[in-house]
Write a structure and sequence with these properties.
By secondary structure, the protein is mainly α. The chain is 54% helix and 12% strand. The chain has 4 helices and 3 strands; from the N terminus they run H-H-E-E-E-H-H. The chain has a 3-stranded antiparallel sheet, with helices on one face. Strand 2 and strand 3 form a beta hairpin. Helix 1 packs antiparallel against helix 2.
Amino acid sequence: KFLSITLENRSAVMTLHNSTQRMSAMLEVCKQVAGETLKFEALRTSIMEHARRLVNADRATLYSVDWNRKTLAADLGSRVVTMPLNQGIAGTVALTGEPLNIKDAYSDSRFNQSVDLKS
């Protein structure tokens, strides 16, 4: 019984710690927006870095959707990579509006390797 209570307490502490980290990251981004201390490019980079860390991802890419052309575009700084809206994991997320957290993107059949090579 003692072990069960200890495990439950540890789980509750870990959940609280994770929630605190998320709130801290969101607060930092909100401070930057409210203080207008960053230009758009720097703000976008900050948001992506906080988001990447919160979900423990290796990297993150922000795509914008062009509904008229039916494409996705990712500004990678030195160049812009585009792809059809109906391709890849990013296309699936854009079309469904549902987030995906994929442990191994390379093993996912929707993974668009050609875009990955460009980035």
